[in-house]
Amino acid sequence: MTVNDLLKVEGFSSVVLCEADREIQGVYIGDLLSWVMGRAKSGDAWITIMSNVNTLAVATLADTSCIILAEGVSLDEGVKETAQAKGINVISTPLSSYSAALKLYSVLKL
Amino acid sequence: MSDLLTFHFDVDGDDFTSAGQASVQIKKNLRQLGISPDTIRRVSIAMYEGEINMVIHAGGGEADVSVSEDQVIIVLKDQGPGIPNIEQAMQEGFSTAPDAIRSLGFGAGMGLPNMKRYTDFMNIESEVGKGTTITMKVNI
């Protein structure tokens, strides 16, 4: 399933879309950036409530397929521009991390 | 070694939000050199943690990366306060980061342990009041 496919699922909307064809290969949930950087796998969709610019650096280094901001967390305009510049997909959902993960489980068929 | 490639970065200590620029740049450089994704990942994670540490604790510093045929060597040098107890600092979960940093998702006490975990060699030289130099090596 690609990031673009995920955006067709109810509850997930695009904040920054740079690489719509990127394949989602797994899911990782976490808000402690060092932990995520060490544990998330390349291609994972990363569910978090952290939306600062360091979140983007971690997504780049861990090579996640997209950041999914849970609980309706939004991105500041400046951070949004940085995400665009770095080519990072950012998706937003009003769902909790747990509910978002459940939904991903049902649609990803991993 | 004639085929040694070196990169130098100044890590700005004033701007926490720009921390990570050196590691993201290194990631790109290593990719251009055709280094394997796993090695790139290890180098860039270790370097990013080091960069963040320099910004949080030392007011910035310098990063030097050299790439040879069989390894990547990262040297991070700062003139910060130094680490009084390295053994304690190496424990997962031990942190002296301020609350403002924690609210950004850092300061979980994972920095140095991650750097050790993702490299094949790590050495810390630190003197209180003078600064810290960390040398890391990742085999290619």
Describe, in plain words, how this protein is organized in 3D:
The complex is a heterodimer of chains A (110) and B (140). With 110 residues, chain A is α/β, with parallel strands linked by helices. Chain A is 39% helix and 18% strand. Chain A is built from five helices and five strands, in the order αββαβαβαβα. Chain A has helices at 3-6, 33-39, 53-62, 77-86, 97-108; strands at residues 13-16, 26-29, 44-48, 66-69, 90-92. A five-stranded mixed sheet of chain A has the order 1-5-4-3-2. The longest helix of chain A is centred in the last third of the chain and has 12 residues, at 97-108. Chain A starts with a helix and ends with a helix. The model of chain A has no long low-confidence stretch (mean pLDDT 94). By secondary structure, chain B is α+β, with helices and mostly antiparallel strands. Chain B has a five-stranded antiparallel sheet with strand order 1-2-3-5-4, with helices on one face. The longest helix of chain B is centred in the middle third of the chain and has 22 residues, at 37-58. At the A-B interface, helix 2 and helix 3 of A face helix 1, helix 2 and helix 5 of B.
